[in-house]
Amino acid sequence: MSTVPAAKPIHAGPEDSWHGVVAPGSRFAPEAGRYHLYIGLFCPFAHRANLVRHLKGLQDIISISIVKPYPKGDDKGWPGWQFPGAQGPDDVYEGATRDKLFGSKHLHEVYFKADSEYKGRYSVPLLWDTKENTAVNNESHELLRWLPTAFNDVLANGSPEKEMTLYPEHLRADIDEISVWMQRDLNTGVYKAGFAPDQETYDKNVPVVFAALNHLEQIIYGNSGPYILGKDLTELDIRAYATIVRFDAVYVQHFKCNCK
User: Which GO MF terms are attached to this record (predicted)?
Assistant: First the structure.
């Protein structure tokens, strides 16, 4: 059974994000060196895509550029994430890179190459097609679903990377069910608490985050680990890890997402 999602417009207009899929026989065929991934090391949603890139051994197949974590722009996201050098020759940040495709100062410049009227957020991750010179996808949950199998045709036969799937058929119903509340209550839940505009909103959202963590712990215990659903590494583990690895350092300390 295919893990490619049902067809939808790749980009319906300036208000829409990009929903392209890399797949054999499609507009975006799997080819080594054709695609470029924009991420930020600070972002758990971009981290998901980069984790898949590494787990699947795609480092030499998909190149990468990394934005700085600050400044992120105003409340509408303008001008958005920057690359080193945007503020001058001394503007550097460890781990960030220049825009290896276009030498852009801001990520919005890349977005405008795909749609000069784009009105959405200039978010990471963003997967770019260098052949058609356009965006493929900037929805992290969509990338997490199809990227693990998208380049199997160019991976070595019999390699563990080619055999790896993060959406095994016998676990798909559980993955689909858990993904909904994990995304709502944990992955974005920490931001609902951290960016709460008032104490009442904060008090409402913090318990939801810790309830989700407790629920996950119960599921892992019930399935005897080592992964959330037992012996199989799935996209749920990628979702959870990218958030939990930031929990003490960012969400507790910076967002004050703490029950104490």
Answer: glutathione transferase activity
